[in-house]
TrEMBL record:
Its EC number is 2.1.1.6. GO terms for biological process: methylation. Pfam families: Methyltransf_3. InterPro entries: SAM-dependent_MTases_sf, SAM_O-MeTrfase. Transmembrane segments: none annotated. Keywords: Catecholamine metabolism, Methyltransferase, S-adenosyl-L-methionine, Transferase. CDD domains: AdoMet_MTases. Belongs to the class I-like SAM-binding methyltransferase superfamily. Cation-dependent O-methyltransferase family. GO terms for molecular function: methyltransferase activity. This is catechol O-methyltransferase.
Length: 278
């Protein structure tokens, strides 16, 4: 047992500061000038560094699932919840720009990660297209709505605090940002480490959602079905929504799991297709 504990401690110690090490690795490349303003080369270097260290990025296996959505729906504005080191912001920001979009908004809780991401996004030549907003996702979503900067969700990529997936989607619903025939949501990590509450919600019938909503708004995260380390990650003492969350149970979703063949994880792609009245 002691041997296993020492190995685990050693692994954690080696992983500490890996985000800063990634930044140093990329900026120490001898051909940095050829990497500058080339989003794919920056993404490729993150993938290469991920062979040595474990990173919470969407990765090359699942990445094309969302770039295909961008090509199909051509959003003018795309929003992501969870920037981390900027991998998805670079990959998808570049795709949105090439598809004729106007902006990419990336919401990140951790200011240190946000700063690393900004430097990599700038290196990729996307500094004037991708905007990183630092803070809680629910607070920032509400600010974007109240300021009028965002009037509807076109394409939303969710890859942040796992228990917040469902509450943040419901917040967007009750703000009127989820629009039938317009809004598409892509949620990462729904199989590994998994997100049972989110999958249940987006796959539920209107009738079932109405029954749940009849209990009234909530101000807690559903944590059942998550690993303990997933529940304790990121939010710490502030692990509760900032708003009373009810959502809009009348919205009708079509939701499908997109899983690369032979890969352990998947992305849930959800479209709002209508409103069921009565």
């Amino acid at each position: 047992m002691a041997g296993k504990q020492n190995q685990s401690t050693s692994a954690r110690s080696r992983e500490q500061g890996k985000e800063q090490k990634l930044l140093e690795f990329i900026f120490s490349q001898p051909d940095l000038d050829s990497i500058r303003n080339n989003p794919q080369k920056v993404v490729d270097l993150i993938d290469k560094f991920s062979e040595t260290y474990s990173f919470m990025t969407v990765g090359p296996e699942k990445g094309p699932i969302v770039t295909d959505l961008i090509t199909k729906y051509r959003p003018q504005t795309m929003i992501e919840l969870g920037c981390y080191v900027g991998y998805s912001a670079i990959l998808y920001g570049d795709a949105v720009r090439r598809a004729g979009g106007k902006r990419y908004l990336s919401l990140e809780l951790n200011p240190e990660f946000a700063e690393i991401a900004r430097k990599l996004i700038e290196l990729a030549g996307l500094g004037d297209f991708v905007t990183i907003l630092v803070g809680r996702s629910d607070v920032l979503l509400n600010q974007l709505y109240e300021s009028g900067q965002v009037k509807e969700i076109e394409l939303l990529f969710i890859d942040h605090y796992k228990p917040a997936y469902t509450t943040d989607l419901k917040l967007c619903e009750q703000l009127g940002l989820i629009v039938p025939g317009v809004s598409v949501i892509a949620a990462d990590n729904v199989i590994y480490p998994g997100n049972p509450p989110y999958l249940e919600y987006v796959r539920s019938s209107v009738e079932k959602k109405r029954q749940e909503a009849a209990k009234g708004p909530v101000r807690t995260y559903v944590t059942e079905g998550f690993l303990e380390r997933t529940v304790n990650a990121y939010m710490g003492d502030e692990s509760a929504p900032k708003f009373e969350i009810l959502g809009n149970p009348n919205l009708v979703y079509e939701s499908v799991l997109r899983q690369p063949e032979g890969y352990k994880d998947a992305i849930e792609v959800t479209r709002c297709v209508g409103v069921q009245e009565g």
